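thought: fold this chain, then report.
action: predict
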Amino acid sequence: MNEGIRTVIYPVKDLNRAKKMFSRLLDTQPYVDEPYYVGYRIDGQEIGLDPNGDKDGHSGPIDYYHVDDIRKHLQILLDGGSERVQEIKDVGGGKLIASVRGPEGNIIGLIQMPKEMKH
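observation:
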């Protein structure tokens, strides 16, 4: 199952400046506020700020599709001509992420949430 895009992560160079701007834009405070990630939840959507994203070569936001089987969906993207950018990685609590560069050069992200974290 694919739940569509529910997470968008922005690479940022100045986390404090970006946090102030997004807090005002979204009219809320982050639910996660760490030096490595700032996250907001708005109506079931995650908006994240990643101060390390540009170091991974991300020049723009990455949209993440929420899927129930990350390996299956990653293989679909690879079979479709995408190339792996980030291997499947547990980013905490069993939450898995991966990303590819699609045939047109776009970065496509996948997230598999642990069963206890699904909305």
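thought: worth noting. Residues 12 and 51 are 5 Å apart (CA to CA).
final: tokens above.
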